[in-house]
Specification:
This protein is mainly alpha-helical. It has one domain. It has seven helices and two strands, in the order ααααββααα. The termini are far apart. InterPro entries: Mycophage_PG1_Gp7.
């Protein structure tokens, strides 16, 4: 009779990954993301199906997700929301700040998410996509405001550059 094979533990499966931090908090964040996304999409479909996006809808949502992720992760005004998970490092460009995650475990993982616009961008895009499933017109309106803010930011940067060369 052959001996029973032991199932590998979760820790055994991820051993050798090479990171000092535990992966559990990141798995918890991903599980939250997946659950919220699933519920949002399923409830949107049940409300009346999925509206057909146009190319301009996609472009507008992309620009809005960019701005929303910068607003959440870098803006001085939203620092109060990041403060439990981050610490101030230095002033950034324009009205932005540079922060670092603090604490450990889930607090640290959330801090990493809230200090990385590239990381948070997926969450912002998903939130806007789910909002678009439930209320396409309102989401287009909000996205247009966020996109206008991006255009204004570009103009501010250009103006500053022009002034510095004069």
């Amino acid at each position: 009779m052959r001996p029973l094979r032991q199932r590998p533990s979760i820790a055994g499966l991820v051993s050798g990954y090479g990171r000092e931090r535990q992966l559990g908090p990141y798995a918890a964040l991903f599980a939250t993301y997946a659950a919220v996304t699933g519920v949002g999409v399923i409830s949107g479909v049940r409300r009346g199906g999925i509206p057909r996006p146009t190319l301009s809808d996609g472009a507008l949502l992309a620009v809005a997700a960019f701005k929303l992720s910068r607003l959440i992760t870098k803006d001085k005004v939203t620092g109060f929301a990041r403060a439990p998970f981050t610490e101030f490092v230095e002033e950034g460009d324009g009205a932005e700040v540079n922060e670092a995650p603090r604490g450990d475990g889930l607090r640290y993982a959330i801090g990493e998410l809230l200090t990385c616009p590239f990381c948070f961008n997926q969450w912002a895009a998903t939130a806007l996509g789910i909002a678009w499933l439930h209320a396409p017109k309102a989401t287009r309106d909000v996205s247009a405001l966020l996109a206008a803010s991006v255009a204004a930011d570009v103009m501010h940067v250009a103006w500053t550059k022009i002034e510095s060369q004069a």
